[in-house]
Structures are given as C-alpha cells and as structure tokens.
Amino acid sequence: MAGIFNKEVEVYLSFATLRGTIATRHARLSDHLLTFDETFTLKNVKSGRGTSSLSAETALVYKRLVILVADLGSDGQDTVDAQLFRVEREPHRVIVGAGPFWVRGDIHIVRGGDLETVGLGTTRFVPLTGATFVGQEGAEPATFIVNREHIGCLLIDPRETV
Fold first, then answer.
1. What is the pLDDT at residue 81?
2. Given 3-state DSSP classes, what are the helix, strand and coil percentages for the chain, each rounded to the nearest 5?
3. Any alpha helices (H) in the chain, and if so which ranges?
4. Mean pLDDT over each residue of the chain, to the nearest integer
C-alpha cells in the first residue's frame, strides 16, 4: 500500500493566497494535480493577500481557478523510483507570466522538443523547478505548478544558466 505524503503548499488564486497541506498518495505534487478531479482538498488553511486573515480546517479548491501552486516542501528532485518512470526531458530556464505573477524557473521539455510545445500540451498544470517569483530571487527556490490556462507569456530567461 502506498504511503500518504503531506505536501505543504501555497495556492495562488486571483483573489487570495491560501497556505495549507495537501494529503496525497503521489510523491510529486504535479501528479496529484494532474488527476481528473476538478477540485482538491486543502487542510489547515490560512489565507493571505486580498483578504483579512482567514483560517479554516478544510478548503475545497477548484483547479480551474488556481493560477499556480508552490510546493514549499520540495527541492524539485524526483525520487529514484519516480525517475524510472519519467520521459527524458531537458531543462530550460524561463520566465512565466501567469495571472498577475511573474515566475522564474526551469521548465522541462521532452528531449528534442522546444518551448512552443508547452502551449500545445494537454495537461492542465506545468511544473517549474528551482522557481522563485521575479524580484524575489533571493528566496528559497521551490517547485511551482502553473495552470497552463493562466499562462499569458513564456519567455526564455535572458539569464539562462541551465
């Protein structure tokens, strides 16, 4: 039986930022968000940005309204088991404009692909590893999972270092 992973996250919506925990059987948060469910449950919720301080034991979050999710407990590295089942990909340093946010991180594209294929993808969420908000590069990098439907612009990072 698979274990349960408790992922500490920040969920960015247009009207608020929610901080809490997602309980999932998936080692990677992106795998949890890519399920066909239209919602996910957030536990031990605290809100920020755009609202007075609210908290709740549980929140039901609609995926289509999520702009991005920051996995606060991830260093962006797969476990060895997860690596065995992944398609080989190449990292590209990018800046993504999603909703009101600009995020700098590594997008991973199938070997031989290019950035234009990101827009043709069929999954709702796109992971960026080693990511920070633009202007906050001194912050601890995390994995950000960005809702493809909210991406307005994708730039090759002029400071490409990968």
1. 46
2. 15, 50, 40
3. 29-33, 80-84
4. 84
